[in-house]
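We now fix the convention by which a protein and its fold are recorded. The integers have meaning only within a learned vocabulary of local backbone shapes. The record below shows the convention in full.
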Amino acid sequence: MTVFDASTPFILIARIKVKPGKVQEYLELAAKTDAAVEASEPGMLHHTFDQDPENPLCFTWSEVYKNDNAFLAHLANAPVAEYLQGHAQLGDGFTVEVYGTVGDQCKTALDATGLPVKIFETKCGYSRV
């Protein structure tokens, strides 16, 4: 049986709403951030920005982290801070869902973002790493 803790992968879904008339500008911000994350975060295993098929103002960041340390590195990454500043200007909503078990340090860091966060802790399953 797999033990899920701070050392195991997890999924983070960030649901974003963009202000009307700001989608193109937001897409440019997202693309810039994505390129920077790809170049600087080896612990980010999957990182996509997906548009809601029913609401063109809604998007989802789909992120898979190697472990808690990868997420903590993400939060400390300067391009991510720049993205959050840009979101404050262009966005109109931001919620976070975590799927998987994370440790106390990661939970504290999530709480410190000030964003609405919901953590779905793993009860069974496996991860191929």
